[in-house]
Write a structure and sequence with these properties.
The protein is built from six helices and no strands. It is mostly helical. About 15% of the residues are buried.
Length: about 140
Protein backbone atom coordinates (compact mmCIF):
# COMPACT_ATOMS: atom_id res chain seq x y z
CA UNK A 1 0.00 0.00 0.00
CA UNK A 2 1.68 3.17 -1.18
CA UNK A 3 0.34 6.51 0.01
CA UNK A 4 -2.67 4.87 1.68
CA UNK A 5 -3.94 3.59 -1.66
CA UNK A 6 -4.85 -0.06 -2.01
CA UNK A 7 -3.84 -1.83 -5.17
CA UNK A 8 -6.19 -4.47 -6.46
CA UNK A 9 -5.35 -7.52 -8.47
CA UNK A 10 -5.87 -7.06 -12.18
CA UNK A 11 -9.10 -8.44 -13.51
CA UNK A 12 -8.90 -11.90 -15.03
CA UNK A 13 -10.18 -12.08 -18.57
CA UNK A 14 -13.48 -13.86 -19.06
CA UNK A 15 -11.58 -16.05 -21.53
CA UNK A 16 -8.90 -17.00 -18.97
CA UNK A 17 -11.04 -17.34 -15.86
CA UNK A 18 -11.27 -21.12 -16.07
CA UNK A 19 -15.04 -21.01 -16.54
CA UNK A 20 -16.61 -22.65 -19.52
CA UNK A 21 -16.63 -20.27 -22.50
CA UNK A 22 -19.72 -21.97 -23.85
CA UNK A 23 -22.89 -19.95 -23.47
CA UNK A 24 -25.46 -21.56 -21.15
CA UNK A 25 -28.29 -23.41 -22.78
CA UNK A 26 -30.96 -21.86 -20.56
CA UNK A 27 -33.46 -19.69 -22.40
CA UNK A 28 -35.99 -17.16 -21.21
CA UNK A 29 -39.70 -17.94 -21.14
CA UNK A 30 -40.14 -16.94 -24.78
CA UNK A 31 -37.08 -18.98 -25.84
CA UNK A 32 -35.41 -16.04 -27.56
CA UNK A 33 -32.61 -14.97 -25.22
CA UNK A 34 -29.03 -16.17 -25.56
CA UNK A 35 -25.55 -14.74 -25.08
CA UNK A 36 -25.21 -13.76 -28.74
CA UNK A 37 -28.42 -11.73 -28.61
CA UNK A 38 -27.37 -10.12 -25.32
CA UNK A 39 -23.96 -9.14 -26.72
CA UNK A 40 -25.52 -7.75 -29.91
CA UNK A 41 -27.96 -5.64 -27.87
CA UNK A 42 -25.11 -4.48 -25.65
CA UNK A 43 -23.14 -3.27 -28.68
CA UNK A 44 -26.20 -1.48 -30.08
CA UNK A 45 -26.78 0.30 -26.75
CA UNK A 46 -23.13 1.20 -26.32
CA UNK A 47 -22.98 2.58 -29.87
CA UNK A 48 -26.17 4.59 -29.38
CA UNK A 49 -25.75 5.84 -25.81
CA UNK A 50 -22.14 5.32 -24.78
CA UNK A 51 -20.45 3.54 -21.92
CA UNK A 52 -21.57 6.02 -19.26
CA UNK A 53 -25.28 5.40 -19.83
CA UNK A 54 -25.01 1.63 -20.21
CA UNK A 55 -26.48 -0.48 -17.41
CA UNK A 56 -27.64 -4.05 -17.02
CA UNK A 57 -31.12 -2.74 -16.21
CA UNK A 58 -31.20 -0.67 -19.41
CA UNK A 59 -30.00 -3.73 -21.38
CA UNK A 60 -32.71 -5.92 -19.86
CA UNK A 61 -35.35 -3.34 -20.80
CA UNK A 62 -34.04 -3.30 -24.37
CA UNK A 63 -34.27 -7.11 -24.48
CA UNK A 64 -37.71 -7.18 -22.85
CA UNK A 65 -36.59 -9.31 -19.91
CA UNK A 66 -35.78 -8.79 -16.24
CA UNK A 67 -32.25 -7.75 -15.31
CA UNK A 68 -31.75 -11.02 -13.45
CA UNK A 69 -32.48 -12.97 -16.65
CA UNK A 70 -29.33 -11.54 -18.22
CA UNK A 71 -27.24 -12.97 -15.39
CA UNK A 72 -28.06 -16.52 -16.51
CA UNK A 73 -25.84 -15.81 -19.52
CA UNK A 74 -23.11 -13.53 -18.14
CA UNK A 75 -21.68 -13.41 -14.63
CA UNK A 76 -21.34 -9.64 -14.41
CA UNK A 77 -21.22 -6.38 -16.34
CA UNK A 78 -17.44 -6.52 -16.84
CA UNK A 79 -17.69 -9.94 -18.48
CA UNK A 80 -20.43 -8.63 -20.76
CA UNK A 81 -18.35 -5.60 -21.74
CA UNK A 82 -15.43 -7.88 -22.51
CA UNK A 83 -17.67 -10.07 -24.71
CA UNK A 84 -18.84 -6.93 -26.54
CA UNK A 85 -15.27 -5.74 -27.03
CA UNK A 86 -14.25 -9.14 -28.32
CA UNK A 87 -17.19 -9.17 -30.73
CA UNK A 88 -16.36 -5.83 -32.32
CA UNK A 89 -12.68 -6.76 -32.56
CA UNK A 90 -13.69 -9.88 -34.47
CA UNK A 91 -15.03 -7.54 -37.19
CA UNK A 92 -11.48 -6.45 -38.04
CA UNK A 93 -10.01 -8.07 -41.13
CA UNK A 94 -6.69 -9.71 -40.34
CA UNK A 95 -3.84 -9.97 -42.82
CA UNK A 96 -3.44 -13.22 -44.72
CA UNK A 97 -0.27 -14.61 -43.15
CA UNK A 98 -0.09 -17.40 -45.71
CA UNK A 99 0.49 -14.85 -48.51
CA UNK A 100 4.27 -15.00 -48.76
CA UNK A 101 4.32 -12.33 -51.47
CA UNK A 102 2.56 -9.75 -49.30
CA UNK A 103 4.62 -6.87 -47.96
CA UNK A 104 4.48 -6.90 -44.15
CA UNK A 105 4.26 -3.10 -44.15
CA UNK A 106 1.09 -3.21 -46.27
CA UNK A 107 -0.34 -5.88 -43.99
CA UNK A 108 0.45 -3.83 -40.91
CA UNK A 109 -1.03 -0.70 -42.49
CA UNK A 110 -4.20 -2.63 -43.36
CA UNK A 111 -4.48 -3.91 -39.80
CA UNK A 112 -3.98 -0.40 -38.38
CA UNK A 113 -6.68 0.95 -40.70
CA UNK A 114 -9.08 -1.83 -39.70
CA UNK A 115 -8.36 -1.09 -36.03
CA UNK A 116 -9.06 2.61 -36.57
CA UNK A 117 -12.33 1.90 -38.43
CA UNK A 118 -13.47 -0.34 -35.58
CA UNK A 119 -12.68 2.30 -32.95
CA UNK A 120 -14.38 5.01 -35.02
CA UNK A 121 -17.51 2.86 -35.39
CA UNK A 122 -17.54 2.00 -31.67
CA UNK A 123 -16.15 5.01 -29.73
CA UNK A 124 -16.80 3.36 -26.36
CA UNK A 125 -14.30 0.59 -27.16
CA UNK A 126 -11.15 2.68 -26.75
CA UNK A 127 -11.86 3.09 -23.03
CA UNK A 128 -12.25 -0.65 -22.60
CA UNK A 129 -9.13 -1.66 -24.52
CA UNK A 130 -6.87 -0.60 -21.68
CA UNK A 131 -9.12 -2.22 -19.10
CA UNK A 132 -9.54 -5.68 -20.57
CA UNK A 133 -6.96 -8.09 -21.90
CA UNK A 134 -7.78 -8.21 -25.59
CA UNK A 135 -7.31 -11.70 -26.94
Amino acid sequence: MAGGKQTSNPRTSVWLSGKSAAAPRRRDDQGNLDRERIVAATIRLLDAEGLEKFSMRRLATELGVTAMSVYWYVDNKDDLLEYALDEICSEMALPDLSDEDADWRDQLRGLAEAYRRTLAAHPWASRLLGRFLNL
